[in-house]
Amino acid sequence: MKQNYKVVLLAVLVTAGALLLYLIPPIGDVTKRVWMLSDLFPDSTGRVAEEMPGLPLAMQPDTDSTAVALAADSIAADSTLASTDGAPRDMHNTPTVPANLPEGTTPILDYSGGANGGMGHIAGLLRGVAKLQRKVRIAYYGDSFIESDILTCDLRQLLQDRFGGEGIGWAGCKLTGTDQKPTVSITASHIEDRNHLNRGKFRTSLMGPSLRYYLPQNGARITYQGTAFRRHLSQWTATQLYVRAPSGMTVTTQLPSDSLSTTHTLEAQPGVQIVETAGQTSRIDYSLSFSGSDAQLLGVTLEGSTGIQLDNFGMRSESGHSLAYIPDDVLQAVAAHHSYDLIIVHFGLNATWKGISNAQCRAYIDKTKQSIQHLRQYFPAATILVVSVSDRDQRDADGLHTMDGVERMVAHQAIMAQELGVCFFNLFEAMGGRDSMSQLVALGHANKDYTHINFKGGADLAQLIFDALMAYL
């Protein structure tokens, strides 16, 4: 009887503690209010009382969300939304859109005014890609929304179908729970993965462009093999392994077409070194030999010699702020050997919650601007495309509907693009606006968390982005 009493008491205490978590207020732009019974009793007390300042009717709830650019202009003019550092904001003119936008296509808004960061750069390269003697490279940065190469594998396929190219592009050095990709086969031994989810073990100063790094042991081995998950992935022509070897390293490579392996000797130095292997292949094997315990692997690129290359840099639970801390030596090496022509920045899901305020949105985008500015230092000519948060649905008193913070975040992301003089794509609008995630779930194209798409939904959204890009050609 006493034992049963203790069990009941423990259950009551745990339940009470879980409910009391609601009393902890959101802090800054990353923490959210915890409400354990949100599915049964939707929280209305956490809603922000303030209006969306200066928003036109087209951005108000229960209307067609088609005027984010106007919303951005209106919000940016509101004095309560000044930059957190107090600096004057560099506002650009009305955005340009394609002259002959196909009906039903949501446009990419170009705030560059013809300067770097706009659509002119990437559009010109795509028009002349057949005459280029190099690849056109695209980096797609995002969170768990594009994890596992969701969305990006279909966008890559669409681009390579039209403009040529082969291979997955950037890949990690080990398949992990946060980096499982059916678009490449990786077999690795004696290698540990490190990313920001490895609390206490991850060092930001060591991460590569994918926001992670790998710790090999002497004798480590890696094998990469193409897959048929999407077209153009089964083989590639050029391979680059990015390594830090402060104590030196010997890297041995083997292609199936070669009867002998090739040995590469890396000097002892602190910076990033690259092992390049030429030759069309569907597989490559690496073996590593070194002394000491200070070596790191950053990743590998598997790509063609011409056409399009699109790299998936999806990192679960990432807000986009870590991009500001990618080490200088990494971006210098990438800019010298793997420079990008288009950088897509697609974050915000992990910084959007019910009741988010204008000030919290402002704090979030001010930090994200630092990330984009950091990348622009090393890729000054690249087109920068900010993709807004997607629809995210949550249960309220009337059922499943768009979380009330989503449209506020979309509008602020448009502000960010305008202030930076880069491009903006309203994915929320393109996918159908309010309650569109619920529609994807009903079709079996999104998960029942009403937040994340699956590969079917990824194909849907990749087509929307592709159509918006092609409208500029």
Write the layout of secondary structure elements.
Blueprint: H1 2-20, H2 68-76, E1 108-110, H3 119-127, E2 135-142, H4 152-163, E3 169-171, E4 185-194, E5 213-225, E6 236-245, E7 249-254, E8 262-266, E9 269-281, E10 283-289, E11 296-303, E12 307-314, H5 328-337, E13 342-346, H6 358-378, E14 383-387, E15 393-396, E16 399-402, H7 406-420, E17 423-425, H8 427-430, H9 436-443, H10 455-470
Parallel strand pairs: 2-12, 2-13, 13-14, 14-17
Antiparallel strand pairs: 1-17, 3-11, 4-5, 5-10, 6-9, 6-11, 7-8, 7-10, 15-16
Characterize the largest beta sheet: strand count, sense, and whether it forms a barrel: 6 strands, mixed
**Order of helical and strand elements:** HHEHEHEEEEEEEEEEHEHEEEHEHHH
Shape: globular
Given the structure, what is the number of helices?
10
Q: What is the terminal separation in angstroms?
A: 77 Å
Contiguous low-pLDDT stretches (5 residues minimum) are 25-31, 40-48, 53-89
Strand order of the largest sheet: 1-17-14-13-2-12
Query: Which structural class best describes the helix and strand composition?
Result: alpha+beta
| Average predicted local confidence, pLDDT | 87
Q: Compute the number of strand runs.
A: 17
Q: Indicate the percent of residues in helices.
A: 25-40%
Key structural traits:
single chain; 473 residues; alpha+beta; 6-stranded mixed β-sheet; 5-stranded antiparallel β-sheet; 10 helices; 24% strand
